[in-house]
Structures
1.
Amino acid sequence: MTATAEPDLERLFEHTIERDQRIEPRDWLPEGYRKTMIRQIAQHAHSEIIGMQPEGNWITRAPSLRRKAILLAKVQDEAGHGLYLYSAAETLGADRADLTEKLISGRQKYSSIFNYPTLTFADVGVIGWLVDGAAICNQVPLCRSSYGPYARAMIRICKEESFHQRQGYELLMTMMRGTEAQRAMVQDAVNRWWWPSLMMFGPPDAESPNTAQSMAWKVKRHTNDELRQRFVDMSVPQAKALGVTLPDPELKWNEERQHHNFGPIDWDEFKQILKGNGPCNAQRIAHRRKAHEDGAWVREAAAAYAAKQEGRA
Ligand SMILES: [Fe+2]
Ligand SMILES: [Fe+2]
């Protein structure tokens, strides 16, 4: 590439974004955009993979064959989401082994929500309803992300996430029709997961350093606070239909804003978990590291086989 060609390429990139068209792997793109996309996609991929652990915890103890089959399918979907996303990151020149290394050495993040424990089977339902529900709010707009491979991966992921949300809600509905003890179990799980779910949308807009640039590049379509509000407004009638109380005394409809007001979020708790001090941070990473090490022989065998095939050719 010559020095004089660069401004033209940059204009072409900006023009593509302006016209709401997709940036594809063959296109020239600014280094900042590449880095931002790799960071966002890697963090998303890691979240899918680490997110298998809290619910995977309940597969062997699911209360019926039907619940076990549903949960297995759901956790397996999350593995698939991780794989589509690592592949999307590879189209930007990222190396999958390097991304995994960064995850298990703590240099890249995953969603903090997965650092909370799953104490009862009701947690499986609440994760589906609230955590996958929040993920859908975040991810539906990403189907229009400016980076083509990411946007296309998100379309498929969102379809599967809506199954996750519904299986969770249906599980909770069933438990709410059950015994007093089951209803108490659901309420307890809602109490523990509500606030962490609101934190999933990230820090308030005023403290979100990457938002402005990501909005300009159309890799992000709405701010953290907009999406959080949308999620709250969506969840209130669902909680009512379910018969549970959301643990926020300040939660109420604001006629003027046409939105629900809600109480302050404990951002100190969020920051502590980001720093690695959540209840399960160490356990999640240790488990992922062990799975990676246990799989070393598979990678070695695959590489040896590929080398042999190449030798024959
Ligand atoms: Fe997922
Ligand atoms: Fe999911």
2.
Amino acid sequence: MLNFGSPKNPNNFNQASDQDQENIQPKSIPEPEIDQSSIYVMPGKFTISKNEPKPASPGKTVKASRVKSPVKGIVIFTLVFMFISGGVLAGIFWYFSQAEEPVLPADSQTGQQAPAADNNIQAPPGQVQPEPEPVPEPAPIPEPTPTPEPAPITNIDADNDMLTYEEEMLYGTDPNNPDTDRDGYSDGMEIVNLYNPLGPGRLEDSGLVDRFINSLFGYSLLKPNPWVAQAIGNDLSQIMILPDSETGEFFIIYAMANDGALTLSQARQELGNLLPSAANMQNYSLAGQPALRSADGKQILAVNNQFIYILIYESGAALTENFHTTFQMMQNSFELLDSSM
Ligand SMILES: [Ca+2]
Ligand SMILES: [Ca+2]
Ligand SMILES: [Ca+2]
């Protein structure tokens, strides 16, 4: 039995309802006709929360497109999000890609980027950076060695007194004073005329010379005291007089018996091998004897009844002849011994 009238007691109503449902269920109740247009229409207080927008008033239909709007919003939101995110990512990528390339300082004048200087290259830690090798300074150009001046020619007669430098040293005279003893006669003239160039008296008494005497061949002559006279061979026919200097000059005195009583011209022809300049010899006088002398004054041939004498000044390999005045002194001092007279 249904009681829809006055439901004063809800519990009873519910119980009655349950019983009614059991009782009613088997009965076929004709279903009411449902208006399809209002199938989703429900009172707003049962279906929509307070936060949601107010539903449409009852009785009005809701279009089907309104049902899909949340999905479309999600899609739009997703697209916008992806668009913004892609832009942000692209910006970040562009920023780092620009940061990788170092920006070199631009040249202030040319505007071009200055090339990286090698000097700024630093050696890795733990490795000593080699110091640049210093550029060697060019070797100073040596000044040309001055050509040594030739040794002074010592044979020059600086004071023009007929004595060479060698002879001035030999006799102890002043090479720069033509008259060492200031007696009015030059040093050379005193030597040639057998006077002492260092003072009064004769040369033979000065101690500057000594007399060589060859009694076997009957002659004598003065020679400078330091010089040496020695015989060549076993007899005294060849006497060599050697200066104490190293000029290579020397003197030879040949002496031989004139057994055949040769005249001066005959002796010149016979002894031509000892007198290379015999053809050009001129008349001369040696110790009062008839003689011949070469043009250069270095060869003398003298003949008397007993002996034949030859005096030779051999300059040898000497570049200069230092003893012409001395050789003249030797000739002027040449004397025949009394036995040969
Ligand atoms: Ca002189
Ligand atoms: Ca002098
Ligand atoms: Ca003098």
